[in-house]
Automatic annotation (TrEMBL):
GO terms for molecular function: copper ion binding; protein-lysine 6-oxidase activity. The gene is loxl3b. It holds the Pfam family SRCR. Its EC number is 1.4.3.13. The lysine tyrosylquinone cross-link (LTQ) is generated by condensation of the epsilon-amino group of a lysine with a topaquinone produced by oxidation of tyrosine. Disulfide bonds join C150-C160, C230-C294, C243-C304, C274-C284, C391-C401. One of its GO terms (biological process) is collagen fibril organization. It catalyses: L-lysyl-[protein] + O2 + H2O = (S)-2-amino-6-oxohexanoyl-[protein] + H2O2 + NH4(+). It comes from Sander lucioperca (Pike-perch). It is an enzyme of class 1 (oxidoreductase). This is Lysyl oxidase homolog.
Length: 651
């Protein structure tokens, strides 16, 4: 008997001669019955699921590809064969140990639309059939499918009505030829194809929190603010509209239950019912949200089909203990076209470069970017072929990042080559902006109460010249509530053996820099800054159903659990900006979490929070507090140019 569990369904497979019986749920398996047990909880059963579906698995939000295992475009133009992605060619399906063609009798543009979508392309183009007919007439073709009748809304050829050629029969497609299609790639995958006007990616839909390109939580823009989509009735048709709108193909999966992490802010849509041919998710019928309808634990997500680019063929990891870690080696070609494997200089290598390397490898997020790899097994590859790598973190391959034209690496030994540790999941920290706005105030604090804060460098430089212990410092105080909305716990990079004990405050600091607090004027110059000392990371509270795991007391583990938050109240030491030397005026308050990207996250664009700030010398007001990626680009530009506070006048 074989016992496997996949994606929520338990399959118990009894193997007999040539058939099997499958139980679709564990409730149908033989047992003593519900509640009839002599077990205690220390005997609770568990499983480790394999990340693949067994043949025959059916889910309403995925498609069973058993009938058509694989589809490809075979380019017949010599120059096009070397370029990726392949956008035009003969449609072929995997058949036995080879490939077979599809007869194009009755072939329509709707069929082409479906084929292009499943191969990662959002749109189709007209194709010159006369050119292909001359070529195909001289070729020997084997036709496996001789009739396709897609409606155009299917997400895979297997979902269309198909007629197969009879087994062992010869079908010649008399009066037709092998089906040929031409697809239009999305902007991210376009080569120099001479198009005067390139298609644009939607500015009102985006994906967040995904480990790989073309996947993530669906977010939509309304009234210049981004929000999420509820997963009620979320299906492949609606997901495909989102994917094509963003320049990808049709959807591979429509994910529910916040599988790509929970968003923050508004939830705009519920019960989205796309037919599949809409240009935008905003063109689909949907219901508006009420507070009782949906929570962020129901945020919808997608995985889209992408064109094959072959990026993973020019990079590999060596020396690591698992396939998710190792020294980065790149494939290079010399002037003669000879290919060989080479190393990347570890100098300046950081988490952002590691993010790109892990993405290129198809291994998800970067857990760490390593500048030294001497502790891993060495290989026969010793030459440095890339140095000075600087990535934004969004590139699809390291070759798209900035790097030195000529290799320049001071530590050129292989033990100083760049390395990565990749992961399928990552944390994602977000500051709760409304709380900052609600709790802000000014305190004039006596110097004799600030000795510990001075020791941790939490005051401005002029404090050193003060007449201690007499006088006071003026402090801008507020509370910070930092949520982990990712899919992995946020944990300090350093082990507890290297944490620093602070006797004055009586706790360990697990990170050198965790948060920056800055007050800036209109041109972006800092006029005051908060302390850069580390914090004690722990779970202050969690959402319903999530248990706390981290607590600083008694040298406990530090971190923030998924679904929990760390609260720094306005009345604790160093939770402030020293504004003693700041003149009255209009400013911008900026708070940045994990500013040096020291700990890997799935998304760094939401680590900053900004507020408009007005200070009259006695009182202070904050408004428009928002996460860095919460507003549209237009709204963010208006925020930066804001001349002063208009809706909260000083009496």
């Amino acid at each position: 008997m074989v016992f496997k569990m996949t994606y929520g369904y338990t399959h118990r497979i009894f193997k007999y001669s040539n058939h099997r019986i499958v139980c679709k749920s564990i409730e149908f398996c033989k047992s003593r019955g519900w509640g009839n047990s002599d077990c205690t909880h220390d005997e609770d059963a568990g499983v480790v699921c394999k990340d693949e579906r067994i043949p025959g698995f059916v889910d309403s939000n995925t498609l069973n590809y058993c009938l058509i295992e694989e589809v490809r475009l075979r380019s017949v133009v010599a120059m096009s064969r070397k370029k990726l992605p392949v956008t035009e060619g003969v449609v072929e399906v995997k058949y036995k140990d080879g490939w077979a063609q599809i007869c194009d009798l009755g072939w329509t543009i709707k069929n082409t639309h479906v084929v292009c979508g499943m191969l990662g392309f959002p749109h189709e183009r007209k194709v010159n059939k006369n050119f292909y007919k001359l070529y195909l007439d001289r070729q020997k073709n084997h036709f496996h499918i001789h009739s396709v009748a897609c409606t155009g809304t299917e997400i895979h050829l297997a979902a269309c009505p198909l007629e197969y050629s009879k087994r062992n029969a010869t079908f010649t497609c008399e009066g037709g030829m092998a089906a040929v299609v031409s697809c239009m790639p999305g902007p991210l995958f376009m080569q120099n194809n001479g198009l005067k006007k390139k298609p644009k990616i939607s500015s009102t839909v985006r994906l967040k929190g995904g480990a790989r390109l073309g996947e993530g939580r669906v977010e939509v823009l309304k009234d210049n603010e981004w929000g999420t989509v509820c997963d009620d009735r979320w299906n492949l048709q609606s997901a495909s509209v989102v994917c094509r709108e963003l320049g990808f193909g049709s959807a591979k999966e429509a994910l529910t239950g916040a599988r790509m992490g929970q968003g923050m802010g508004p939830i705009y849509m519920n019960e989205v019912k796309c037919l599949g041919q809409e240009k935008s998710i905003w063109n689909c019928p949907f219901k508006n949200i009420t507070s009782e309808d949906c929570q962020h634990s129901e945020d919808a997500a997608v995985r889209c089909n992408l064109p094959y680019m072959g990026f993973e063929n020019s990079i590999r990891l060596t020396g690591g203990r698992t396939r998710y870690e190792g020294r980065v080696e790149l494939l290079s070609s010399d002037s003669n076209g000879t290919q060989s494997w080479g190393l990347v200089c570890g100098e300046s290598w950081s988490t952002k470069e590691a993010m790109v390397a892990c993405r290129q490898l198809g291994l998800g997020y970067a857990n760490q970017g390593l500048q030294e790899t001497w502790y891993w097994d060495s290989s026969n590859v010793t030459d440095m072929i890339m140095s000075g790598v600087k990535c934004t973190g969004n590139e699809m391959s390291l070759s798209q990042c900035q790097h030195h034209k000529t290799v320049s690496c001071q530590k050129a030994a292989a033990k100083f080559a760049a390395g990565v540790i990749c992961s399928d999941t990552a944390s994602d920290l977000v500051l709760h902006a409304p709380l900052v706005q609600q709790t802000v105030y000014i305190e004039d604090r006596p110097l004799h109460m600030l000795y510990c804060a001075a020791e941790e460098d939490c005051l401005s430089k002029s404090a050193a010249k003060a007449n201690w212990p007499y006088g006071h410092r003026r402090l801008l105080r507020f509370s910070s509530q930092i949520h982990n909305i990712g899919r992995a716990d946020f944990k300090p990079k350093a082990g507890r053996h290297s944490w620093i004990w602070h006797a004055c405050h009586g706790h360990y600091h697990s990170m050198n820099i965790f948060t920056h607090y800055d007050l800036m004027n209109a041109n972006g110059t800092k006029v005051a800054e908060g302390h850069k000392a580390s914090f004690c990371l722990e779970d202050s509270d969690c959402q319903e159903g999530v248990s706390k795991r981290y607590e600083c007391a008694n040298f406990g583990d530090q971190g923030i659990t998924v679904g929990c938050w760390d609260l720094y109240r306005h009345d604790i030491d160093c939770q402030w900006i020293d504004i003693t030397d700041v003149r009255p005026g209009n400013y911008i308050l900026q708070i940045v979490i994990n500013p040096n990207n020291e700990v890997a996250e799935s998304d760094f664009t939401n680590n900053a929070m900004k507020c408009n700030c007005k200070y009259d010398g006695h009182r202070i007001w904050l408004h428009n507090c928002h996460i860095g990626d919460a507003f549209s680009e237009e709204a963010e530009r208006r925020f930066e140019k804001y001349p002063g506070q208009l809706n909260n006048q000083i009496p």
